[in-house]
Amino acid sequence: MENKQSEKTIFSVIVPTFQRPQDLNLCLRSLTNENQKGAPSYQVIVSDDSENNDGKELVDKYFPGFNWQVGKKIGPAGNRNAGVANASGEWIVFIDDDCIADPGYLAAYFSAINQNPTNSIFEGRIYPDRPRRSWAEGCPANEKGGLFWTSNLCVKKAVFENLGGLDEQFEVAYEDVDFARRFELAGFSSSFVPDASVCHPWRSVRQNNTKNWKNKNYEEADFVRFLKKHKPKERQFTLPGYTRNFFRMLTSDLFACAVKYQFRGVDILLFQVFITLKGMLLIHRHNRYLKNEDLEV
Prior knowledge:
This protein is α/β, with parallel strands linked by helices. It has helices at residues 21-30, 54-62, 76-85, 105-115, 157-162, 175-185, 218-230, 239-261, 266-296; strands at residues 11-17, 42-48, 67-70, 91-95, 100-101, 121-127, 137-138, 152-156, 190-199, 203-204. The chain is 42% helix and 17% strand. The relative contact order is 0.12.
């Protein structure tokens, strides 16, 4: 199923996966030649952190033209880096195993590359499969760009390697936020490609229904790592920004949960309020750390 193998490989499509063979099956089917007509030469690499062989058996049986490999088993950043390490394409396309690529997905990226030859990074559209039904559902939608989610991202391989890939100290979160920050600081240009779209179905965000790398307090440790590494000044990473989010959750978000969803998933909203409070505390501690650091200097 690898497209035009005798030609120079343009895209290496990296699909990191972790114990979601049913989702992976839908993702890989969307990446076959039949669904990606007009695409240049490409390869698909499934990098698998699973604790079983379901993914390997799926690829071997139904997608023999795709490549399966064992990941680093240290989280999504390491898994994606492992895929890139074996990539032969000029460009890396990241797509998550629970995303479904639209027909013409790769052709849209290729067209954007040809139309914007000085750009090194392109982000594609991510949209849900239906209207939201509960606050307990999540989807990393990207309708306008500027988010750079690795759920749907195209990066020139030489640039990715020059930047050192994804930082593997971020175990389950912030690795894409960190990468976006680094390539922007390095001065690389980017574009949003709405036609390079993938569908990310709504998923339950409840821990007991989730099959991924995330542990109970997954975001807290990686948020601290991000603060220490970048010392960000943008509002969304500051105490005023988090305070604003806190009051928004208790007002407009709570109202929306009541009116639109009849309080379905309100426990998740309240949990997000709690996490935001913890984030405020972490930012406060970080600010004190920076202040003491300045005093010592």
